[in-house]
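Board work, copied verbatim: Triosephosphate isomerase
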Amino acid sequence: MRRPVIAGNWKMHKTIAEAVELAGALKQAAAGIDHADFIIAPVFTALATVAAELQGSNLKLSGQNCSDKSSGAFTGEVAPQMLLDAGCSHVILGHSERRQLFGESNDLINAKIRAALTAGLRVIFCIGETLAERETGRMYDVLSEQVTQGLAGLSEEQMDRVIVAYEPVWAIGTGKTATSDQAEEAHSFVRGLIAGQFNLQVSEQLRILYGGSVKPGNVDELMARDNIDGALVGGASLNADDFIRIMNFNGTN
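↓ predict structure ↓
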């Protein structure tokens, strides 16, 4: 059985004080839940303070991005080692907003993944197609490129520290959600890609999360599907009650 993962990507929201308040509420709620791994990803400025708030809890901390460089003259960048130093165990890489708004290529994302793993972080690797790519029949080609290029050169051992998050871009922040059938189809396809690129054991152990307007009202149905191992939650992770309900999903995987 793959242990489920519920991760909250807070994006560019919450001051340090607000982040600590939300983290404290989630810490208290998570204390009585043991059916999944829980991860939150605040903004860079709040990481160290939130890490202190989470001490002794079963909540893990993630950065939302990192550089592929360990140090140097790269103004505005954050190295993987700096995330570790701030208390992170994970980092989100390849998010569609990084790809679309900041022009990150599959090759750059691959370099970031390799740097993060080398530094000792675990990676939440995001993939997903746009609406135009889905409607023109390119979804599978896009996912194939993102997976094969993004994970190129990784060893089977390194894949133990990778989580994949499938996020159809057309469902992120739009209120639209892929149906559980659509999500399951994509997750099954991605698991097959991993089996071909690595082997069946790696693909069976890999946890694949669904992201894209995950809410309290749809998490149970999504989590009941065989190849959906968790959720990467955006907007609903900013509200304690909503995210706690998602953490307490009732699906059986």
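Strands lie at 5-9, 37-41, 59-63, 90-93, 122-127, 162-166, 208-211, 230-233.
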